[in-house]
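Check out one such.
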Amino acid sequence: MGNKAADAVSSLLCCPCRCLFCGVFSCLFSVLTCVLFAAGLVALVLYLLFRPHIVRAAAVSADLTAFTLTPRTWILRHNLSVDLQLRNPNKRIELHYHGVAAQAYYQGQRFADTDLPDMYQCTGETSPPIAVAFGAGESPLVGGIAAAGFRREAAEGAVFSVDVKVTAHTKLKLWLIKVPGPKTKIDCPLRIHRRNDTADGDTPPQPPFQPTECRVWF
């Protein structure tokens, strides 16, 4: 009998706490559900209203005036410039790019980088070609596999696989409202003919650069 009485008292003492905990948990869950539903509804309305689209990017020209590898030390000497064109396909969103940086890679290794000025794009605008000038410089090429890849491409017509990447922070202008946008990443895998291989008048003319669509994501 004593144990049953103690259990009854313990149950009476714990039951209000359990009810209070269940009530608070249920209330928080209901509030969280309402907030998530409201946020999803707002996001859906904004999407249907502005219909955002990913920026389109293309490398329209490229010039590789120097691209040589010193034997044994594997120092890559380069002089690269690329003209990049951006298109804003959005009809209701203006774009402001800031903190724009470009990097050039060969065989997965970065050999040059540069900063670019801020850029603005109105709705539906295709920008004039943006000069991405890495300039002349040199950088070590690490690993025998990378050096072997360079020698192979040099022997196969001096057309090199260069990867140009651009990153930029964005601000979105929605009518009169400016809001922070996602970080834009652009990747342009290019095939560029080294121009100094065709400087001799006895060699055939350099093939023109083929404009290349770039991959864009956030």
The chain is about 30% helix and 45% strand.
